[in-house]
Amino acid sequence: MTLRSVQFSLLVATALFLLADNHAHGQVADIQPVTDAVLQNPEPSDWVNWRRTLDGWGYSTLDSIDQTNVGQLQLAWSWGLEAGISQTTPIVRSGVMYVANPGNVIQALDAATGDFIWEYRREMNERLRPSAQLRSLAIYEDLIILNTVDGHVVGLDARTGEPRWDTPVMPNQEGYGFTSGPVVADGTIVAGLTRCDRFREDTCYIVGIDARSGAVLWKTSTIARPGERGGDTWGDLPLLYRAGSDAWIPGSYDPVTKLVYYGTSQAKPWTRDARGSDGDALYSNSTLALDPTTGEMKWYFQHIPGDSHDMDETFERILIDYDGQKSVFSMGKLAILWELDRVTGEFVSAIDLGYQNILDVDSQTGEVTYRDGMVSGVGEELYFCPSTGGFKSLRAMAYHPDTEALYVPLNLNCETAAFGPVERREGGGGTGGVRGRQNHFHPDAPGQLGEFQALSIRTGETLWKQRRRTPFNTAALTTAGGLVFVGDWERYVFAYDVSTGEELWQSRLSTMSNGYPITYSVDGQQYIAFGAGGPLGGSSWTSILPADLLREKRNPRGGNAIFVFALPK
Questions:
Q1: DSSP string, 268-328
Q2: Cα torsion 438, 442, 448, 454: sign
Q3: Distance between CA atoms of residues 202 and 56, nearest Å
Q4: Residue 296 to residues 153, 176, 193, 248, 258: CA-CA distances in angstroms?
Q5: Using an 8 Å Cβ cutoff, are 193 and 177 in contact?
Q6: Predicted confidence (pLDDT) at residue 500 exceeds the cutoff of 60
Q7: Under a CB-based contact definition with an 8 Å cutoff, are residues 102 and 560 in contact?
Q8: What average pLDDT does the segment 123-131 reach?
Q9: DSSP annotation string for 248-264
Q10: Residues 321, 323, 329, 331, CA torsion sign
Q11: Top-confidence residue, 200 or 263
Q12: CA 165 to chain centre
């Protein structure tokens, strides 16, 4: 064979390889459109919202795996994910799993076998891909909806992964982005921006987008602007220096009240001193109730006015009806369970688990008062519980209707630290950071960081709790089989009896569990899926283990994956 013929053969082989690769993506054979009715009342076999249902319960009606057989669970399949920060929540529809990888990479898998179907890989700087996390997706009709790290919302064809539309939400403002997927409320995609800590001429938003066309319908600022309602709560700060109030965890939707409920983070910088204002800083650390058709803010409730310790209240909103009361429950870093009337926004109750040392809440009014000496200036050392990692953080609670209890993963930690200054200029700002951090075990839990507890919504009583040396590191998942699932930093995943807290099953993954476990079924077989990933990148989950307190603990670095368990056939 001549050199020329060899070159030609190699060229043909390369072309055939590339052609095969370009067409290696399969296609979902049968798509059953996900309507608003389906989102509001999903099939038991599916997991079509971030927390399965729009009310944020994290509860499944599946009961094939129950208290009598959960001990037989075994690994059914696993799938490796892209490297980087991974806190993913798969969604499942009609036997197909759609999973978000770090780096704006979306894959469709056979939910029974883990076999690959298709992949969407967004163009971006490959160096930045591992740090581009995405916690969740949404599905509507035949679209998989992706929020991107660079502030776009993309509608993908659920059959093929091909983009149907791609909408830049903040086209003129670099730096904003998404880390979680949206909630879909009656055909409107509602999503909250993050990375709002820098001083810019605009603010963070919650946005509404038409699910079919991708057109932006409205933007609602999560910061009160000068001259508007609540604008004076930032003092005389111009809009340029009003930062934070991110809404980076998906909201919940009530199709009866026709309101979507979002939590917001603290103002930035973290301390009042660094912000240059000691006002309440609306609408930071608040629950916001928005009309999804217009973006109008129907009501708000601020949980921590003028926060000065990085105590986020931005996490899940859980919608529960009982005794004629329509409530929205939430818990932020301080481990205070807030209950509000979700029609009016009026305060109902606040249950302090008793671990924090920063403030007091009036049980009748919800009014917050800081304890003496707990509002520090820039550079002033302070001992506070929790640390900036929080007792309750991204690990979502779950509700079980039979026990009327919330299941809460906690990390009991304290720290001594001082908050730093920020540069007062356009593009400056930031959090202010933590200086000279010293980590401490909580005085109520010496030598232990992890706590998982069942909390009655009626009485605020702790029904049971489990403690571990390392933090519980996943959201909770409850099922009609009388079970609650959760995972920890030390690579274990557990099933507990929802009524007693008895441990009924455990398994150990290749690296630490994280993200949001789900359950689903295919052809009558129930599956439990956990995400796992190594401590890369500085995520608040993966950096939460204080190495100076637990020097003996180590985890593999890397190894992002989905692990799926089932009963033996």
A1: ESSSHHHHT--S--TTTTEEEEE-TTT--EEEEEESSTT--S-----S--EEEEETTEEEE
A2: negative
A3: 30
A4: 21, 22, 17, 19, 12
A5: yes
A6: yes
A7: yes
A8: 79
A9: -S--EEETTTTEEEEE-
A10: negative
A11: 263
A12: 25
DSSP state of 133: -
Task: Tell me the CA distances in angstroms from 105 to 52, 133, 134, 153, 184, one per residue in order.
Answer: 21, 10, 9, 14, 21
Contact assessment for residue 91 and residue 100, using Cβ atoms and an 8 Å cutoff: no
Rounded CA-CA distance 120/108 in Å is 9
CA dihedral 510, 516, 521, 527 (to 10 degrees): 20
Asked if the model's pLDDT at residue 294 lies above 50, the reply is yes
Which residues are 493's β-sheet partners?
A: 487, 507
Average pLDDT of 425-441?
Answer: 89
What pTM, to 2 d.p., does this model score? 0.94
Compute CA distances 286 → 117, 205, 261, whole Å: 41, 14, 10
* Token output for 246: 């991110």
Q: Percent of the chain beyond pLDDT 90?
A: 77
* Per-residue CA distances from 166 to 28, 157, 176, 300 (Å): 21, 12, 16, 31
Nearest to 399 by CA among 498, 304, 542: 498
Give the distance from CA 497 to its chain's centroid: 25
Rounded to an integer, the average pLDDT of 480-507 is 97
* Nearest alpha carbon to residue 165 among 142, 186, 184: 142
Q: Would you state the structure tokens that stand for residue 169, as one six-digit string?
A: 């939400």
Helix, strand, coil percent content, the chain, rounded in steps of 5? 5, 40, 55
In angstroms, rounded to a whole number, what is the distance separating the alpha carbons of residues 481 and 250? 26
Q: Are 514 and 471 in contact (CB under 8 A)?
A: no
Both structure tokens of 549: 């307190």
Please tell me the predicted confidence (pLDDT) of residue 109: 98
- Burial category of 525 from C-beta neighbours within 10 Å (exposed 0-12, middle 13-18, buried 19 and up): middle
208 versus 271: the higher-pLDDT residue is 208
As a whole number, the mean pLDDT across the chain is 91
Q: Do strands 59-60 and 477-479 pair parallel, antiparallel, or not at all (unpaired)?
A: parallel
Calculate the alpha carbon distances from 533 to 82, 140, 484, 537, 555 in Å: 10, 28, 21, 11, 10
User: Confidence band (pLDDT; 50, 70, 90) for 238?
Assistant: very high
